[in-house]
Every structure is written in C-alpha cells, then in structure tokens.
Amino acid sequence: MMRMLDYFVTESSEHQREYAPCFIHQGEAVIDDFLIPIDENRRRCKAIIASWQQEERNVLGEGARNKFEVAPLSDNWGWDKRSGQFWNLRILETKRAQGFN
C-alpha cells in the first residue's frame, strides 16, 4: 500500500504495525531480540498522570485542596445569553457589523 501511495508512514513502531500488519512478529524470542517495549504507552501515561498530580500539589499546596475555590463561570459574558452562532448568523442575515465588547 505504501509503495502505491508513494508515502511512508513515519509514526513510531507502536503505530507502524497498524499499517503493516505483516511485520507483526509473534513470540518472546523476537521481543527479547529486538528489545520491543511492551506496555510502553501505559508506562508513559502513568508518568504523565504522576506529573499532573505533582503539578497539582505544587500549585495547590499539600492538603490545601479544600481551601482552593474556583470562581463560577458567567453564562452571560457581558452580552445577552444567545450563543456566538446566533450572532454570526445575525451578522450574515443583516449584513451589519456587530460589536462583541
């Protein structure tokens, strides 16, 4: 398929097997010979989640979660409650410029 399309997929070897399933090898010997990282994605995800949790502790402080409050978002945003899509359509229909501030 890659020869016919004249493109070669340049993804990681983990994703490459989706495009070339004939190259998927079976067996522990091949895994050991080529040092194939089994569960590498899972390991990376765990590391990313751990870094997020550490960042949260850095920002909020240890045990300060109950003291941290998030201001509620306004559903008005300083204009009436109609959506941005409404205003876009209104501008197109009336051919008038519309200010949003």
Give a concise summary.
This protein is mainly alpha-helical. The chain has helices spanning 2-5, 13-19, 28-33, 40-60, 84-94. The longest helix is centred in the middle third of the chain and has 21 residues, at 40-60.
Please, could you describe this protein's structure?
- The chain is an all-alpha fold.
- The chain has a domain at 2-67.
- Helices cover 49% and strands 0% of the residues.
- The chain is built from five helices and no strands.
- The protein has helices spanning 2-5, 13-19, 28-33, 40-60, 84-94.
- The chain is flat, with a radius of gyration of 26 Å.
- The protein starts with a helix and ends in a 7-residue tail after the last helix.
Structural class: mainly alpha
How large is the radius of gyration? 26 Å
Beta strand %: under 5%
Shape call: flat
Through-space gap between termini: 53 Å
Helix content: 40-55%
What are its keywords?
flat; about 100 residues; about 50% helix; mainly alpha
What is the topological layout?
Elements: H1 2-5, H2 13-19, H3 28-33, H4 40-60, H5 84-94
